[in-house]
Amino acid sequence: MPRPLRILTPLHSFEPGGVERVALRLNAHWQQRGIDAIVLMGRDAGAMGTGNPPAQYRTFDQPGFSTAPFETLWMTARLPGAIRRLQPDILFCAGNTYAVVMLAMRMLLGRRCPPIVIKVSNDLARRDMHPAGRWFYRRWLRLQGRLAHAVVGMAEPMRAEIAVAMGVDPAKVWIVEDAAVSIAELALLAQPRTPAIRERRFVAAGRLTTQKNFALMLRAFAQGAASEDRLTIIGDGPDRAALERLVATLGLTGRVTMPGYQSSVAESFAEADYFLMSSDYEGVPAVVIEALAAGLPIVATNCSVSMDYLLQSGRFGLLTKVGDTAAFAHALTAIKSRPYSANAARTHAARFTVEHAAKAYLQVFSNVVAAPGRSSHIVSDIECAALSAP
């Protein structure tokens, strides 16, 4: 009898990142419901793995030195053997970062490579790139489109973008709303906010990296916020030291705090009045959905084809041009007078749950393995139940 569907998700580590966080949450949901979902880690380091990891996982045998500086090469070298041993029916590419590994698997394993489902986790236009780099990037996207058996976007506006940028048949494009929050987290994020005395409290969250452009946010805050206003930036990353120096240079010491990585943003969001995001590019940022679930008005850069959809054409906040410090500073003032419904924002955020996405991904995987020539694997009774569950 054919065995049940087996899903393999390779990840570099537990270092905080939106792609890894969502992938771990999806796999945890599948595992809790008896799905044969395997998470294979390049190394087990990182803040998301401390305490109880979000999902059960396996790791490659570790050498006597850190593989972090060359984690993609390390995974590319070790993954083919794991695929031969585990014989998965689906390789789940959890985000754009892992597409190069998936291409290597197709080249190394040939016809023995399982079908690949790629989740597009980032912006495909990449206007931040130099034109020459963008030319190569566009061809790289076309190559990804050729290697994938299905491509998944995280919000409806991504459908056309994916089909055009990756050159894929629209029939290969699926939309699965981003698994940003669980139903339980929706309730936690909806807790009443602590009222401010007289200052406005802004909050931001994300990896402290160039992509997130927190430097622009700090400069805009220095220009557009009142002297009593406060900003908290949650997260950690390689740009921390440079951002701390910028805080001092701008005279924001005492007004800006950077508490580091937090496994849950619910408490910090409950103590805030507005959410900020200044990224140069994004896919469907989970932290924006968390902010909506917390009922926070949002000021953000228009860093993704999906941002207007997330903010419902200005209903839940203001979008500014990417890289425009003056416009972002102006929006910090303008957001005060915008009409806003926290309940409507929370209702919108409820579309983006792990529970819904986990079931929808199983449907994608099942369709891929049921394609002509791939009928040797079946969806088990457990998986059928998961697909039909509310």
In brief:
This protein has a 7-stranded parallel beta sheet with strand order 3-2-1-4-5-6-7, sandwiched between helices. It has a 6-stranded parallel beta sheet with strand order 10-9-8-11-12-13, sandwiched between helices.
Q: Please give the CATH class of the largest domain.
A: Alpha Beta
Q: Summarize the biggest pleated sheet.
A: 7 strands, parallel
Task: Report the principal-axis shape.
Answer: globular
Radius of gyration: 21 Å
CATH architect. name of the largest domain: 3-Layer(aba) Sandwich
Question: What name is given to the CATH topology of the largest domain?
Answer: Rossmann fold
Which class do the helix and strand fractions yield? alpha/beta
How many β-strand stretches? 13
H/E topology pattern: EHEEHEHEHEHEHEHEHEHEHEHEHHHH
Number of helices: 15
Q: In whole angstroms, how far apart are the ends?
A: 29 Å
